[in-house]
Every structure is written in C-alpha cells, then in structure tokens.
TrEMBL record:
Residues 17-203 form the Metallo-beta-lactamase domain. This is Ribonuclease Z. One of its GO terms (molecular function) is 3',5'-cyclic-AMP phosphodiesterase activity. InterPro entries: Metallo-B-lactamas, Pdiesterase2, RibonucZ/Hydroxyglut_hydro. It comes from Amantichitinum ursilacus. One of its GO terms (biological process) is cAMP catabolic process. PANTHER family: HYDROLASE C777.06C-RELATED (PTHR42663:SF6), HYDROLASE C777.06C-RELATED-RELATED (PTHR42663). It holds the Pfam family Lactamase_B_2.
Length: 255
C-alpha cells in the first residue's frame, strides 16, 4: 500500500494544509484542507473517508468533496467514524443550514453520503489489507487508526494526548512499520497542550517509553509558528532505535 500525505499541519497559510492522508487513491484518512489540492479526477476516485474525530481541521474539506463529486460519480461516498462524530456531522454540518444533507440526497433511500459507525476495536477490510480503529484521547470522542497491508502496518494517532490504551494497542501490532503521531505544541506551551489534549515534545518523549517497538516516528500536526522549535525539542533516541522526522506534504510512505 501507499500512503500519501495531503496535509499534516496544525494550521493553514503559506503552503500549510491541515490533516489528510490518501491511502491507495480511494481512501482518505481525515479530510482536512489538504484534500483541496487533489485534482477533480482524483476527488472522484474517493470511495471511503475514515475520520479520527469531528474537529474542523480534520473535516474541513469533507463537505466540499461531496459537493464536488455529486452528480459526477454513481457510487456514494462512505464516511467511517464513531457514532459521536457522526452525530456531530449530522447536527452541525449536513443540516441544510451549514451544508446540504448529502445523506438525504438525491433521496434517503439512495443517498450520496453513507455513514458507517466505527468504534474502537472495529475493523474494516479494504483491498490489500484492513483498517482498525484504536483508542485515542482528545477533547471530543476520537480514534486512531492502524492501517494494515500484507507487508506492514502504519499507525496514525489522529489528535491525542498520552493514553495507555493507545500504547497497549500499538504494542499488540507485530508488523508495525511506522508511527505517525501528533505533536501540536512546543514545550513552552505544555500547559496548553495538556488542556487541549495534545502532545508537546516533552510529553511525547515520556509517553514513548510505553512503546515496545523500535520504529521511526513521524511527527504531524505541528503549529506553523513553532514547527522548527518542536522538531528541535524532540531528539533521536538511538538506545531505543527511534528517530524523529517531520511529516511533509506530498510525502509517500510505502508499506
């Protein structure tokens, strides 16, 4: 499988795009502003969207994706998310006030948007592998995702703070190829990070002591003003066999 980074920033502006990953051309993991750089033809290929949670920076382009593709493809788009996230989308986005309810058009028996509930521990089979929802801890109900191919697995944390069940789930994966994990705030904003249930570098370094795998760690969701400082405050740990690198838009990970 191939995972393409469409957006991996904690903000916008000057080439920054918010969180979205494209898995093998037809599956989005989150739908932040990075989706907007896809061509029209590429947007029409999207069959499934897996959302970690319902915060704006992770769903911003979902309404526009549906609007763009509507009428130009025959099959509906399936959005996989927790029931809590689906409830938020129905109530606050696809409500005819903010955006048309694509779950009811062209009609409720044949909607262009289909919701599929995916809670922690649930698994969805996809061509060449499967996706499993893992525990995460954020200010709203959230999940992480384990993306499994026949040859390896990439774990994407979504937005989360330190959470023992997350690390327990990661440690049960035998073929972990890489960990993509958020570190939104620099250490001088550690109090804010704790309040917002995000990682800062010091908190991540402490939390990684719970991970048994020796694998590279890709850092995502950095605030644009502090991305260089955040990476400076993280440091490689040769004793644990771990290196840190900043995820980059346009990057492709094969696994």
């Amino acid at each position: 499988m191939q995972l393409q980074v469409l957006g991996c920033s904690g903000g916008i502006g000057a080439g920054q795009r918010t969180t979205s990953l494209l898995l093998d051309d037809r599956i989005l993991i989150d739908a932040g502003t990075g989706v907007g750089d896809l061509s029209f033809e590429a947007l029409l290929n999207i069959d499934h969207v897996f959302l970690t949670h319902a915060h704006m920076d992770h769903i911003a382009c979902l309404p526009m994706l549906l609007d763009t593709a509507f009428g130009s493809r025959a099959e509906p788009v399936t959005v996989h998310a927790t029931q809590a996230s689906i409830d938020v989308l129905r109530r606050h986005i696809f409500n005819w006030h903010i955006w048309p309810d694509f779950a009811a058009i062209p009609d409720s028996r044949n909607p262009f948007l289909r919701f599929a509930v995916m809670e922690q521990g649930d698994r969805v089979d996809i061509p060449g592998g499967h996706i499993t929802a893992l525990p995460a801890l954020h200010t709203v109900p959230a999940v992480a995702y384990a993306l499994h191919s026949d040859d390896g697995c990439i774990v994407f944390s979504g937005d989360t703070a330190d959470h023992a069940p997350f690390w327990e789930a990661v440690n049960q994966i035998d073929d972990l190829s890489a960990l993509i994990i958020e570190t939104a705030f620099a250490d001088q904003d550690a109090d804010l990070a704790r309040t917002a249930l995000h990682f800062s570098p010091g908190a991540l370094l402490n939390a990684l002591g719970q991970m048994q795998h020796e694998t590279d760690v890709w850092i995502t969701h950095l605030k644009p003003a502090d991305h260089a400082l955040i990476m400076q405050q993280l440091h490689d740990d040769p004793a644990q066999g771990r290196r840190f690198a900043r995820l980059q838009p346009g990057q492709r990970l094969d696994f």
